[in-house]
Amino acid sequence: MTNATPILTGRTPANAAADIRGLKGALELPGEPSWWWWMLAAALLIGALLAFRWWRRRPGPASLVPAVPAHLRARQRLEQAMRLLSDPREFCSEVSGALRWYLEERFQLRAPERTTEEFLEDLRQTSDLNTAQKGSLATFLQSCDLVKFAREEPPEQALRDLQEAALHLVAETAPGMHDLPPVTAGEPGRQA
Fold first, then answer.
1. What is the per-residue DSSP string for 131-188?
2. Domain boundaries defined on the chain
């Protein structure tokens, strides 16, 4: 048993002894593992660039567009209602709706979701409108209701008068309108 030849290797004992090498140690990287630091730096740089691009593309603060005052929007709606003059029922619905919406916006009166009778009852208890304005508003709303619900067919001039009454009430109750000095002839830059 002293001269046993390896069966599986197919090598002769003389070649086998020359082929055997010792175990190698662990492969050492030259210097410190600086490649880790480079990878970390690259990842941080990419993250910073992505964060900067996101920051630049995010929407800025919403630009505060001055809101159009309620009295100007109401005037606009009342003037646009003139296109419905050929249909009295639609015209009165639009005109009364514009005025009710204005009163809710301007005075926080719950006009649009109330019947005319309910609204007029609430209107009696407010000091936002004077007695003449309350009377004018009651007449206006009742006239509109006759056209909308009783199917009254007023002449075109009566419809124009309703629109004019609504415009007049908006003009009287617009904020700051009573605080303006009267316009007199002869002042530079002002029209009489």
1. HHHHHHHHHHHHHHHHHHHS-----HHHHHHHHHHHHHHHHHHSTTTTTSPPP-TT-T
2. 70-173
